[in-house]
Amino acid sequence: MIIVSACLAGINCKYDGGNNADDRIIELVSKGQAIPVCPEQLGGCPTPRLKTEIVNGSGADVLDSKGRVIREDGRDMTAELLKGAQETLKIALLLNAKKAILKSKSPSCGCGKVYDGTFSKKLTDGNGVTSELLLRNGIEVISEKDL
Questions:
Q1: Are 103 and 61 in contact (CB under 8 A)?
Q2: What are the backbone angles phi and psi of residue 120, rounded to the nearest 5°?
Q3: Beta partners for residue 113, in sequence order
Q4: What is the pLDDT of residue 32?
Q5: 36 with 9: CB under 8 angstroms?
Q6: Residue 36's closest CA among 96, 103, 86?
Q7: Which secondary-structure segment (H or E) carries 140?
Q8: Dihedral angle computed from the Cα positions of residues 43, 45, 51 and 55, in that order, rounded to the nearest 10 degrees
Q9: What is the pLDDT at residue 140?
Q10: 6-34 pLDDT per residue, tens
Q11: Other CB atoms closer than 10 Å to residue 17's CB: what's the count?
C-alpha cells in the first residue's frame, strides 16, 4: 500500500480549500493501491487555513525540537503538524505501507525542498515534518514531481 497526500488525490484539503489533483495519484487511489491522507487535517488544522512554513530549518529540525512551524499571522502551529505527522505514521504502519507520495514544498509533506519560513516563496533544502518522520521510520518518500 502507498500513502499519498490527499490533495494530490483531488480532495479539497489544501490550505486554500482547493486541491492539487494529479491524475496518476487519483488512479492509484481508485485502483485501491494508495490511501489518501492529509497530515495537516489529521493534526487538527481546519480547511481552509492560513499558510504555514517551517522556520529555522526543515522537518528534521522540527522533529528534533530545533525548528518551528509558523502560520503567516505568526501563530505557532508546530504541535498540530507534529500530531498530523504522528497520525500519518500510524496509518502507514497499520497498512504496512513501504512508500509515500507526498506534495512537494509543503511544511508537512514536502520532500527534498520546503519553503524557507519567510513567506517569500523561497525554497530551502529539506523535508516537511511528515515526510521526515516517515523516512525516519523506514518508509520511502517521494514527491509527485518524482513520479
A1: no
A2: -115, 15
A3: 125
A4: 97
A5: yes
A6: 103
A7: strand 140-143
A8: -40
A9: 98
A10: 999 999 999 999 999 999 999 999 999 99
A11: 11
Question: Which residue from 15, 20, 49 is spatially nearest to 143, judged by alpha carbons?
Answer: 20
Average pLDDT, the chain: 97
Count of residues making up the chain: 147
pTM here? 0.96
Give the long-range contacts of residues 14-18, CB within 8 A, separation 24 or more: 14/47, 15/40, 15/47, 15/48, 15/49, 15/50, 15/51, 15/52, 16/48, 17/47, 17/48
Tell me: the pLDDT tens digits for 84-96? 999 999 999 999 9
Indicate the SS3 state at residue 33: coil
Cell of 34: 494508495
